[in-house]
Amino acid sequence: MNAALRYLFRATLKNGAVGQLRRLREPRYAIGAGFVLFYFWANAGLRGPRAPDSLVQSLESTAIQSCAVLLVTLGFATYAWVIRDEEPGLRFTESEIAFLFPAPLDRSELLRFHLAKTQLRLLVSSLAVTLISLRFMHGAAHTVGRVIGTWLVFSAFSFHSLGAGFTRQWLTLRGIGPLVHKSVYGLLVIAAVAVSAHQADFDWAHLGTKAELAEAALALTHAPPVGWVVGPVVAGMNASSWRDAAPLFGLLVLINLALVFWVTATIGRFEDATLRRAQQTAIKESSRRVGAREKKRPSPSPFSLKSVGSGTTAFVWSGLISSGRWARPATLLGLPLLVALGALALRNNPEELGEVLSLAGLLFAAFLALTGPLFARGGVPRMFDQLELVKTLPVSGRSVILGEMLPTIGLLVWAQWSLCLPTFFSQANGMAVSNAALVLSVMVFGPPITAFLTLVPFGIGLYFPAWVRPTGDGPRGFEAIGQRLLFRVVFLGLLLAALVPALALGLAVGGLARGLAASWSGSVVLASIFASAVVVGEVVLALRWLGGRYERFDFSKELAA
Amino acid sequence: MADSPPLISIADLSKVYDTFLAVDRLTFEVHAGQVLGLVGPNGAGKTTTLRCITGLIPPTNGKVSLAGFSLATQAIQAKQRLAFFPDEPRLFEHLTVWQHLNFIARLYQVPDFEPRATALLSDLALSDQRESLPRQLSRGMKQKLVLACGLLHRPTCVVFDEPLTGLDPGGIRSMKVVIRQLAAEGAAIVLSSHLLSLLEEVCSHVLILKGGRKIAYGTLDEVRTQFSAAEGASLEDVFFQATGGETAKP
Prior knowledge:
The structure holds 2 protein chains of 2 kinds. Chain A is an all-alpha fold. Chain A has 21 helices and no strands. Chain B is an alpha/beta fold. Chain B is built from 9 helices and 10 strands. In chain B, helix 3 runs parallel beside helix 5. The chains are: A mainly alpha, B alpha/beta. Chains A and B meet through helix 12 and helix 21 of A and helix 2 and helix 3 of B.
């Protein structure tokens, strides 16, 4: 590699590492790093050798491992040859393109620079993957050996992906279209599996028990040509010593070298492809930086926004516009209509399918109340995207957060209630009154819980902004992994903290009502109402607290960490 | 108008980032009709000062008042009177041009905003873009939309950060007209720019910062006198005398 590129590589690496270490002076990052180290120490085998019983690998687990390797390999290959439709190109940053491409550098030097960067990234990923997956692995291979094996496998995938992209481009330029590439790839995969099945030492007529299925999978994945791909990887994963692993690593190195040769032979004029791809990426990144979704047309206003009134309503209005089709009348009316029609169609089902589905709907509604806010966090990145704009507006922090939360809560509650509909139709068909009370309780208790949990990511975002930073240039490294793990723990912890007083009061009130001769159904509904009141109180308090935090939020310090 | 109470009042403003003192005990006032140009070399503390004035970041010490309302204790009332025009046009990517104005009208409680919004769009030649999303607008158009949003509620305290960035000659002329017009209507304006000629053209007062500290403050003539610059000396001459900076030798 050119001396200047070597310098750039070293300086980038050093500055990145120093930056990450400096960040650990912030307690939250230090906690994140500590948490992930503890996690790896406790769960991922850093404590030392595993217990002897974990060395015993069953036939089924080996079969599952082999099938997983086959599926992952097939997935990567299929993505590279069939699904991927973007132009191939090496990934350079915008700055690298601006400075390195016009510089008097040989093309092969740029390629080597890129390879060095990619290999380092893959090595770090391999380390993380190995540490996370050690818990689920069998065999006694040394951790370092596993990291090297995973690195070689990842490299092979990476080179293959590049080679496939450039080959497809080369073929297309010569008039051989995508349909031909995809068809040839499909035929080759089918032929490989068929040949392996034929070669496999297994009587396919006897395929009934679990053990036979495992044997069949093992036979198929170890017979050539499928075995040529799966075999080295599985053997590397399960190698018990360096001596066992060395030949397999040697084979993987040879495969990588062959792939590098393939890439360099097909790369053609990679600058053009890389530049085009970098431009596409830059446009996408720039859209993402300003919070733009892939939105082609403007969304209509969900309701007429009067120019005088609460600021919260303005944020709800804006949030619903941002939700796009999810907040359109057709979607909002379509979901309950569809669920109701389905429930009506099945109400006289002799196999009681209707009742099974209604119960499933109820369970899913409860599941949605608990997990929906974890996934529907659109308001949080939106809030941070627009912080510099919104903080100058004459509106309180509480109003901003409430306004950003309400569209999410509204849509989730609407979905929950829609899913409860089938139970009411089952009720019409003679379901017990107690079940109706249960449904009513879910419908009453679901919204406050959803509201509380929707608030959690806002709270985490305001106290730990780096965890929910919308742009892709957020913190990376182990402490960031730790922060994400902690995010889940905090989410669950706060859920429990919210539930304990609510359920305690609900159970007390329900028990009291039952003691005072109220019906079971009445007691359940009463309990849910009181429990909901507690959660609503928690939401109000949390909102007030976070509103104050928002107003004091100093993004110049927080987001610079 | 200097006899009236100041519309923008900054007293003993300081901002510290960890151990770095970005702004050091800054005090100044801007009265109705005045345009204060904020200048200084890079890292002088201009952006931090503007961010503190607009409530984007809290100051470490000191007090910011807008139209008599403290930004710390009466933030809503203070911000009702404020318009901030950042150097980069920041918009809601999912709202159309008209939806932006509707949204802003609601937040600033502008009754019957439609006629004013229509007039602003017409004045800024944006009438044809009412239903466009920001991504469909050029940079200049985005800048104009930010301007329309900022002017909708008739602000009395206005802050511009590098207002001419990315504008074409027509846009530059329109921006200068807007600044002068706002001042003539009685707004207090703070304008930060490295374009000293712009400040010379539109500012009534100037504040020179260096290392977070005020080194000159007053009308242009007062600042000239302070640095013993010859009558008719340009702001650029005064700036380099004040900051001790050197120009590149030809």
